[in-house]
Amino acid sequence: MTNADVQTWAAVIGIETHVELSTKSKMFCGRRADIPDEPNTASCPACLAPPGAPPVPNEQAIEGIVTIGTALGCTINESSLFYRKNYFYPDLPKNYQISQYTFPVCEFGSLDVEVDGEPTTIGITRVHMEEDTGKSSHVGGGDGRIHDADHTLLDFNRAGVPLVEIVTEPDIRSPEQARAYGAELQRIVRALGVSDAKLEAGSMRFDANVSVRRAGTETLGTRTETKNVNSLRSLQRAIAFEIDRQIGVLEDGGVIVQETRHWNEDTGATSSMRTKEESEDYRYFQDPDLLPLEVSAEWRERVKASLPELPAQMRARFRNAGVDAVTAEILVDSAELAELFEAAVAGGAPGKLIGNWLTGEAIAWSRREEIEVNESDLTAEHLIELATMIEDGKLSSTAGKDVLTAAMAGEGAPHDIAAARDLLQVSDEGAILEAVDMVLADNPDAVDKIAAGDDKPIGFLMGQVMRHMGGKADPTIVKQILRDRTKGA
Amino acid sequence: MPVEIDIAKVANLARIALTEEELTRYGSQLEDILVHAERVQGLPTEGVEPTSHPLPLVNGFRPDETDECLDRDSFLSQAPDSSDGQFRVPRILG
């Protein structure tokens, strides 16, 4: 397919994200919610659904969803309801999942993302509360796929873990935007401390709804839903694949079937999961076992007042401290680096320099030595001292980088390291003056040229002075003195 | 008949196999219920506050505390089949 073909099509993308809350206990019963490895050691009455085991909602989980909704700028509904979503699959023994339908806890939010400097606001349709399902392992028939399995084993440790579903409006227009949305949502959820949001471990999961239409048209095309997307990179790849596939089908005169598709990381392709003979009909109805949820104005206000700083606010603050966009992004993603940065800048160090050191030399050293930056010996005091030394001309910026990594390796405070390594620059004007005069006396030709208006020999003279000073003179001062002394010549 | 109901579809959604005779019998029983619901819907409810639950209660929360799980064998032993500490069910047909 040529690029010209692709450009006549436009993609419309919406994302559903499931986030497991890191509460101590499950959503509707007191079993532990941290999903132990040993099967069925956190799964009894309410998770297994024998008659007469009623669900009792976990207050902390409701606090968690209200926190997420508030951070996403949602309206938090004063009153909301739990519904039963009925379906037949053994991963929930009740034959229904407790979820929400009309009247979710949160609605009408938004999230801002930026791709290549272009900002977009993505609408959040709803954020609702539900319970996670158990884990099914399809045994026999080779590769563990469902189709040719011999039987299925069920572990209900995960069944009933509090799950928050966050649904966007179809506002996303490119795979890159989708990835930026996923990344920012993950940062927010982590900043809120309500979930570890680990994609590889499944505590955060994306489903991508994708359709394409002719560029410039309004009517939406038929969409597919892609599941099994386990990383931000996969989210971007799966959507890019699906857009290409749909354009290919339509260009060939085919039609898109509304279906659920499975992303395969190894082949880099989506494939159709079994198409249901009947359109999904979950026969939602209000769960009579559960009372209406009421989140009072007081509760809403308390959550709002106690929200931590969100990534977007942090990013803006770093930018204001003089840090560029890429560096700010790295700092936002690393609590450890951000902490060092903030302490150093609070101590008066220039943000741009500290940001460059931390995201440049410090990270490079950390990767080389396989020691986290915050586990090295580097402190904010070191950063402040080092920045001051460079500002005062006691250290060249090149030598500063060596001192930084030496401080990380535990060689001591920057000034001591610079002294021990003989890196300190002389900024004593008397000593420099002496060297300059000696060099000028040795090079009368150069002095004459400069006096005649030719600046070229300045570089040569600087080199000579630096040689006399053993390379440790502050070059700014050397240059200034050279200019002063030759001007009068 | 004021209310139509596709009893075969409902039975299929609920994965219940019904005979022709049962389809007719349950169909007419369900229709009676729907007719009754329709009668209720026709009542004058102006000025009546909508309600979603018969009790004047909300939330009914539980604090986020864990308690011990039952011994696994106590419930696995009641299942038709199990292995490796897990419930074992026939292969899933999708």
General description of the model:
- The complex is a heterodimer of chains A (489) and B (94).
- Chain A has 489 residues and is an alpha+beta fold.
- Chain A folds into 3 domains: 301 residues, no CATH class; 110 residues, no CATH class; 59 residues, Orthogonal Bundle (Arc Repressor Mutant, subunit A), CATH 1.10.10.410.
- Helix content of chain A is 40%, strand content 19%.
- In chain A, the strands form 4 sheets. Chain A has a 9-stranded mixed beta sheet with strand order 2-6-7-10-1-11-12-13-14. A 3-stranded antiparallel beta sheet of chain A has the order 5-4-15, with no helix packed on it.
- In chain A, a hairpin with a 2-residue loop joins β6 and β7.
- Chain A is elongated, with a radius of gyration of 31 Å.
- The N and C termini of chain A lie far apart (72 Å).
- Chain B has 94 residues and is mainly α.
- In chain B, strands 1-2 form a two-stranded antiparallel sheet.
- At the A-B interface, α3, β8, β9 and β16 of A face α3 and β2 of B.
- β9 of chain A pairs antiparallel with β2 of chain B, so a sheet runs across the interface.
What's the arrangement of secondary structure elements?
The complex is a heterodimer of chains A (489) and B (94).
Chain A: H1 3-7, E1 9-20, H2 45-48, H3 59-71, E2 75-76, E3 79-80, E4 83-86, E5 96-99, E6 106-115, E7 118-131, E8 135-139, E9 151-155, E10 162-168, H4 175-192, E11 204-214, E12 224-229, H5 232-251, E13 260-264, E14 269-272, E15 285-286, E16 293-294, H6 297-305, H7 311-320, H8 325-333, H9 335-346, H10 351-369, H11 380-391, H12 397-408, H13 414-420, H14 429-442, H15 444-451, H16 457-468, H17 475-487
Parallel strand pairs in A: 12-13
Antiparallel strand pairs in A: 1-10, 1-11, 2-6, 3-16, 4-5, 4-15, 6-7, 7-10, 8-9, 11-12, 13-14
Helix pairs in contact in A: 4-5, 7-8, 8-9, 9-10, 9-11, 10-12, 11-12, 14-16, 14-17, 16-17
Chain B: H1 7-13, H2 20-41, H3 72-76, E1 82-83, E2 86-90
Antiparallel strand pairs in B: 1-2
